[in-house]
Amino acid sequence: MDVTAVDRSAISGDTLLHRAAPASKLIATGLLLGAVVTVNDPLVAAGVALSLTGAGAAVRLPLRTMLPLALYPALFALIFAFAAAPGPVTGALVVLKAVTAALAVVTLMFSTPYPQVFAPLQRVTPQVVGDALLMTYRSLFILAEKFADLTRAVRLRAGLSARQPVRSAKATVRALGGLLLYSLDLSQREYDILYLRGYEGGLRVSGKRSTDRTADTAAMLYAALILAAVLTFRLAPGLRGYAWIVTVAGAVDLATGLLIGRRRS
Amino acid sequence: MNTHTHDAGRLADAEEIIRISCVRHTYEDGTSVHLCGLDFLAHTGARVAVLGPNGSGKTTMLYHILGLMKPQEGAVTVFGLSPSENWPALRRRIGVVLQNVDEQLLAPTVIDDVAFSPRQYALPESEALSRAHTALALLGIDHLADRVPHNLSGGEKRKVALAGALVMDPELLVLDEPFEGLDPKSRSALLSLLDRLARERRMTIVMSTHDIDSVPEFADYAYVLAPGGRIALAGTPEELFSHADILAEGNVTPPILAELFARLRERDPAAPAPALSVAEAVEALTAWKGCPESSTAEVTATTNDGA
Predict the structure, then answer these.
(1) What is the ipTM of this complex?
(2) What angle do helix axes A63-84 and A42-58 make, rounded to 10 degrees?
(3) Å from B43 to nearest chain A CA?
């Protein structure tokens, strides 16, 4: 996973979603996750996934990077579905739920800087947990850079070779071991820095305000509509035969989103 | 560019800010650093350089000043207090830039990083941002405000870290190898800024460095650490660089100009006293050779432009 691509999109992006307040996007993500939990028909779940992809395309989020990330959970969900689902319909539902939930969260992460996502969680979690979540942010980048340096060094010193897989594996494990030791050392140094720069427990993150009220309203309204549609199909079993309408609507959303996105580029 | 003009008036009757007396620290691997021999002192508004080879204890000394290490022997006082025991009372008065600036940048954007300390001290958000913008402007990097720290160049990261250190307008600035990764123009700008901070704000600046050529330009006073941490020599840059033998003990090579003048003196005792800046060297050499005044001025002007 290219963490820097997520970070770059979240911080430097300038889409409608980026302009919305993190709080609005968190609420919208919560509503979408609620819809994923509630949905009990694979056609409705597929419609939600398509619509969400269309929304991403309309605001010009980097879908090429986002979609592979959202599809990761499908692999694990597929294994679970094969092992435990009573039939293909339930199996499809399990996979679609996993993909849709991941898509909602990936959309949030690509449009909101990491600290802004975790700052609200910091208020409801124990202080040390909230601070650890926020501190993970920089450490992740430092470690990713360090690992890239280590891998480069191993490669330059002929430690990685396709013809010598065992030797390459050993070299990689040694590099990871080195990285682990470095990360322990790094945690101490990072704490020292925090201490020197005024930390006394409780990292303070400034709340980012919305720069576009319309974006706030649009994000929350969209998520609320999705949840309402899912709830309708869940609470009215008589509508089951019409679930394909949601799939078609999702496909239309996707097509429209791609068209809007293309026009904006 | 700043030249080494040691303003005696500015430092006269200055208050003692830091004192390190015979401190010993033993690391887990058994390596011991014994900062002894001479007391380390820094006064209000002074620019103090700490020189020495790798492993001589420069960073250990700075960590003691910052309260990150507690002396096992001896004493460290900063603003009259022991930093390892009273850091919360001291930290608002001290700005720090450590050697690895990558690990010092904590926030998602430059402006958030520079505003980190004011927010930790619970200043109003408007004041935190205003201070952050002022610090960025001071370093001429306000255009980087919305950039992501991990995408900056090494020199830019160092400037952002320095802005973060200056944001609370500290009385004491501690810098560990501040010139690493800076191009000559940025280095020169940083030297001018440090000079301005010391003169205009009476900021005390302690800097460890390997950049020997920056010492005459930067420091009012300097200390040389020998391997093991012994403080082998202390004095103004002129005093320091006239003791080539003691400097050699500390694996410190004098600036090329100091060495040139020392060798000239070996050949001819009538040669001028060591000059530590190009302009001074030109004046001293032209006076020694009896060049006409007009050509001296011309050469000086040309050299200054070049510098």
Answers:
(1) 0.74
(2) 170
(3) 21
